[in-house]
Amino acid sequence: MDNGYWGRSHGNDEGGPPDGFLKAAPGVYPTAGRFDDSQFNAVDAITGVNIAPGVGLGQGGGGAGITPIILSSYVDFWIGEMAASDAERSTALRNGLEKSIEKVQGFGALDGTADLSFEPSEADVTAYIDGIVAAFDAATGDDKENIFAEQYFTTLYGGGFESYNYYRKTGFPTTVFPNWEPDPGPFPRTYLLPQNEVLNNPNLTQRADLTTQVFWDTNPSSPSFPPAN
Questions:
Q1: Is 207 or 16 the better-scoring residue by pLDDT?
Q2: According to the model, what pLDDT value does residue 57 have?
Q3: Cβ contact 225:171 at 8 Å
Q4: Across the chain, what does the average pLDDT equal?
Q5: Considering only CA atoms, which of 195, 218, 219, 217 is closest in space to residue 207?
Q6: Are 187 and 10 in contact (CB under 8 A)?
Q7: Phi and psi (nearest 5°) for 148?
Q8: Is the pLDDT of residue 43 over 60?
Q9: DSSP one-letter code for 204
Q10: pLDDT of 52
């Protein structure tokens, strides 16, 4: 756990919740929880009662958020993925970051109690984006691919299915958290079809494994790809 945030290790298939009574509360983006302005629980020293609960149901934006499916920032990263030159890809990376951060910052207004002085300033945002783009422009090979993929994965927060597609298509980033199993087996290149669909559609046959590659997946077969798994 780092600064109050944690999640399940990659490859952990234990029944939930593995953390007992501890829960990570969704923030203001994308679910419209509370804006994270460091207002943690304040307990009355005499009564022991929470007088300023840091998290709870209905706080912040009351859950009036979104489930991201396709955002304009995603499209910029798709443009960057297919770009004909590093210069075009760099421009797409910048555009994607600008749109993603603008989208996230717009959710701060959903929490009427938020102290938005904790929000990064315009100068902070510009410096961050400039730094990422400069690092991308200066990098080569896998380092360049990792920077691009890591930033794309960050923009996908809250709707990460596209990260699976990108990962099995490119193998990047290679900096993903390692599987906690010492021998996890091949990375799934596809998934089983829904059982109800198989039962009700006589034209379908259930897949026999998870390593069959879809038509556009022309990478090496598992387990040699993706290299990080």
A1: 207
A2: 77
A3: yes
A4: 89
A5: 195
A6: no
A7: -60, -50
A8: no
A9: -
A10: 60
How much is the pTM? Answer: 0.88
- 34 phi, psi to nearest 5 deg: -85, 145
Contact indicator for 57, 135 with CB cutoff of 8 Å: no
CA distance 210 to 195: 15
Q: Give the number of other Cβ atoms within 10 Å of residue 210's Cβ.
A: 14
Rounded Cα gap, residues 32 and 153, in angstroms: 20
Q: Residue 220 corresponds to which amino acid? A: P
Q: What is the pLDDT of residue 152?
A: 98
Contact predicate 98/126, CB 8 Å: no
Domain segments of the chain: what residues? 72-174
Task: Report whether pLDDT(184) > 80.
Answer: yes
Q: Which amino acid is at 66?
A: I
Q: Which residues contact 10 (CB under 8 A, 6 or more apart)?
A: 176, 177, 178, 179, 180
- pLDDT tens track for 131-146: 999 999 999 999 999 9
What six digits make up the tokens of 3?
């600064």
CA distance 100 to 74: 8
Measured CA angle at 163 (ends 87, 157), to 5 deg:
95
Closest by CA to 151, choosing from 65, 72, 74, is: 74
Q: Count of H helices and E strands in the chain?
A: 6, 2
**154 vs 129: CA distance, rounded Å:** 13
pLDDT of 150 = 97
Q: Tokens standing for 60?
A: 């912040």
